[in-house]
Amino acid sequence: MKIMTRLAGAALLALAATAAFADTVIYTPTRSLGDQGITLKGWGSGTASEADEMAFEGTSSIRFSSRNYFQGGTVVYASPVSVVEETKDPNNLLVLKLQVPDASTTLGGGNSGPNTSGGDDPGQSNDGGGGAAAGGGARGGGQGQQDGLAIKMLRVVIATSDGKKSECFLEVNPSMVATEDWLNVSIPLQSIAGFQASNKMISSISFASDATASFYVGDARVLNDTTPIYGEPNVREYNLANGDEIVLAGSGYGGATPLRYTWDFDAADGVAVDAEGQAIRRRFRLPGEYTITFTVSDKFGKKKSHSSTIKVVVNP
Known about the structure:
Elements (H helix, E strand, L loop, with lengths): L1 H18 L4 E4 L10 E6 L3 E5 L9 E6 L5 E11 L9 E8 L53 E8 L4 E7 L11 E6 L12 E9 L3 E12 L5 E4 L3 E5 L3 E9 L5 E6 L10 E2 L2 E5 L4 E11 L7 E10 L1
Parallel strand pairs: 13-19
Antiparallel strand pairs: 1-11, 2-5, 3-4, 4-11, 5-10, 6-9, 6-11, 7-8, 7-10, 12-14, 14-17, 15-16, 15-18, 18-19
């Protein structure tokens, strides 16, 4: 209860921190695609269409049908969207509202709007694209919970009006909840590989996933998020018998920032990463006193991390 109360307080701080900044809208469901100067087209054998069966706000969203990282859909802008000023601030994130079916859902039709299939890989460009490392490193907390989702990684390719392309691979993590059915998927603009070398005038964004599935983008915008990272382990003290196994779990909050959860099992030798994940198992085989350090950090290193400790006594 104390953890939830503190995290709820952090959520209020997040609202206060972001309220003073106007978001830069990339796509909003509260206006028609035509009013936003947006058209949709397929990528490879994937499709993109306006759909009314899911909506984050308003009555529609964009439905993408993907079969792998090279087949999905593209959002094309009649007039490029400028994020020149936004990219200067390390606290500005590209935030997507994403709806993903569970793993039992199969790819099917049912698109409610026009779509176009075909097209080359939008990640191919003279600048090399080279963004697989952005967001594609060690996964953060909640890995065990991801097994129920149809997709686990989202590939995003951004084309700018100067002919350059940038890309990132974003983890689809059910712990980043926007509403009951929608997830926050985000990355700092400064962490998108190759984007700093472009003119930062977005002419199109392409989406694909790591599996055969359909997913929905309900909103896309640049959000200024200065929310501090905060986290707490499930308990602060353990008194154990030698050989006992325990489950260590923790919660964290950092606004829209993707989080990483790490554990160090004995601070006596310095704080290092001995395990990673929001919930892990640990067995102590030697008697003594231990200090476990639980750390919640920004996966992209833009914010200060937060650490808490757990005291463990292992009896002979």
